[in-house]
Design a protein that fits this description.
The structure is a single chain. The protein contains two helices and ten strands; from the N terminus they run αββββββββββα. The chain is an alpha+beta fold. It has two domains: 40 residues; 143 residues, Sandwich (Ctag/Cox11 (Pfam 04442)). The chain is elongated, with a radius of gyration of 25 Å.
Length: 210
């Protein structure tokens, strides 16, 4: 038995199915490429997962509600550093700006390079914790025995008083973790700089874009 010849309607239906499949695949590929930046944007806008906010200036008002900010410091395996905040906590009013330093020291006998990540807890406080200055996400080289003070400037947004989920929050913990930069070329570059074999220093250490 031979197949019946395809009619024009059959051909049109098959074409529609093919176009639909191609469109679906294209959309899914596009979504996969956009997922990371969209997720990052979502976290920054909402504070999801303890992602903090970035501010260019301090708020115009200070509210008579106090909140304690605690500071946590961690170093991942493979990085021979000591890392700690200069103070363990500060108490400030909502909308008030504060500035503290984290202190890092290289305890090894070679130049090492670290980079840090951060978050705040409880997670819902990320939408209201704003940083004016930070050392996060950039490469931080330290020569053997070298130490550096890295400032963080921040405030808690006055908008926090309008969020019922934050009504019972009296303390926020800001936590940083330093990880080793393992890229051989990057590490070699900074070791050449310290030994005087490179053309010059890189960007100022201890302070970076947010």
């Amino acid at each position: 038995m031979t197949d019946a010849p395809k009619t024009n309607d059959d051909i049109r239906k098959n074409a529609k199915v093919a176009v639909a499949c191609v469109t679906f695949v294209s959309v899914m590929v596009g979504v996969s490429f956009a997922a990371v930046p969209l997720y990052d944007l979502f976290c920054r806008v909402t504070g999801f997962g303890g992602t903090t906010q970035v501010a260019e200036s301090a708020p115009q008002k200070v509210i008579d509600r106090e909140i304690t900010i605690r500071f946590d410091a961690n170093v991942s395996g493979g990085l021979s550093w000591t890392f700690k905040p200069e103070v363990r906590e500060v108490t400030l009013k909502v909308g008030e700006t504060a500035r503290i330093n984290y202190i890092a020291e290289n305890t090894s006998d070679v130049t090492t390079v670290g980079t840090s990540t951060f978050n705040v807890t409880p997670p819902q406080s990320g939408a209201y914790f704003n940083k004016l200055a930070c050392f996060c996400f950039t490469e931080q080289p330290l020569a053997p025995g070298e130490s550096i003070a890295m400032p963080v400037e921040f405030f808690v947004s006055p908008d926090v008083v309008d969020d019922p989920d934050m009504a019972s929050v009296t303390a926020i913990t800001l936590s940083y973790t330093f990880f080793p930069v393992r890229d051989p070329e990057t590490v070699a570059h900074y070791r050449d700089v310290d030994s005087g074999n490179a053309d010059g220093k890189t960007e100022t250490q201890g302070q970076s874009a947010l």
